[in-house]
Amino acid sequence: MAGLRKAKKEMRLLVKQRLANVSIESRNSKALSSAADARLAPFTAQKVGSLLRPLPEFQAANNISVYLSMPKGELSTHSVVLDALRQEKRVFIPFIGSTKQPGPDSPKSVMDMVSLHSQEDYISLEPDSWGIPTPSVSSTEKRTRILGDDDLVSKEPIGSANGTENLDLVIVPGIAFDQKLNRLGHGKGFYDLFFQRYQQIKVTPNGGQIRMPFLVGLALEEQVLPTDQEVPTGFTDWPLDALIVGDGRILRRQS
Q1: Confidence of residue 138 (pLDDT cuts 50, 70, 90)
Q2: Listed range (88-92, 186-190, 238-242) with the worst mean pLDDT
Q3: Which of 55, 72, 100, 212 is the most exposed place for a label (fewest CB within 10 A)?
Q4: Is 60 exceeded by the pLDDT of residue 210?
Q5: 27 phi and psi angles, rounded to 5 deg
């Protein structure tokens, strides 16, 4: 386990250095921008949206989850969120809260997905310490949560909709991706734990009537490893079903 953590840490540093060497002009052309610019400028994120839109899984999806991008180091999802809302899809975004009783074998915080109400709601979100637009704790009282269990300090919204919604597709962030569609995250484990809990809470108890959502990654060209390199993975790491790359490629996992 220590060796896996070390290998992941080294790969994160390698890819972050690669991204740091991308020129400002190149970054702008690939949708790496400030939070304000990401909301106002088209950039290549719109190109990525044009590749995502025709995917049969995206077209068929009613409920989708979209990560809200950091100011730098990953493709902006601004146009993806707006496009999904225009298509009247239900859009859910990450919300991280503290666990009630963290212990040595349980995390201090976990992630759930909460609903966005509208474009106006999305634009009104304030950035957190990472610069990521994030719903306030108080606003979760009026948002539907996907898992809806009691792990989070914020237990809202109260009502039958809490935990009854399922996800058809999840757009996942990452630092590095390989040709087998393995993903290297930021090291907190939020997404892998969310998928594990989703399977435990929704998929397994329903005998396969509820499926895992289709997992799609978005990547800059510099984040995709060459064919002779792979992301170090463990048994808790979830592979993607598809990867959309800023250079126009779409990679799909072979079944």
Answers
A1: confident
A2: 186-190
A3: 100
A4: yes
A5: -60, -45
Closest to 219 measured CA to CA, from 228, 211, 231: 231
pLDDT, position 109: 85
pLDDT value of residue 76: 84
Q: Are 182 and 231 in contact (CB under 8 A)?
A: yes
Question: CA gyration radius for the chain?
Answer: 18
CA distance 73 to 82: 21
Supply φ then ψ for residue 127, to 5 degrees. Answer: -70, 145
Q: What pLDDT digit, counting tens, does each position of 157-193 carry? A: 444 357 789 999 999 999 999 999 999 998 888 999 9
Q: Rounded to whole angstroms, how far apart are CA atoms 45 and 214? A: 20
pLDDT for residue 153: 52
Q: Specify the length of the chain in residues.
A: 255
Q: What are phi and psi of 217, to 5 degrees?
A: -100, 150
CA dihedral 145, 147, 151, 152 (to 10 degrees): -20
Q: Is 214 exposed, middle or buried (0-12, 13-18, 19+ CB in 10 A)?
A: buried
Distance in angstroms between the alpha carbons of the first and the last residue of the chain: 28
What is the CB neighbour count within 10 angstroms for residue 153? Answer: 12
Residue 31: CB atoms within 10 A of its CB come to 26
Task: Enumerate the β-bridge partners of residue 150.
Answer: none
The tokens of 34 are what? 């400030």
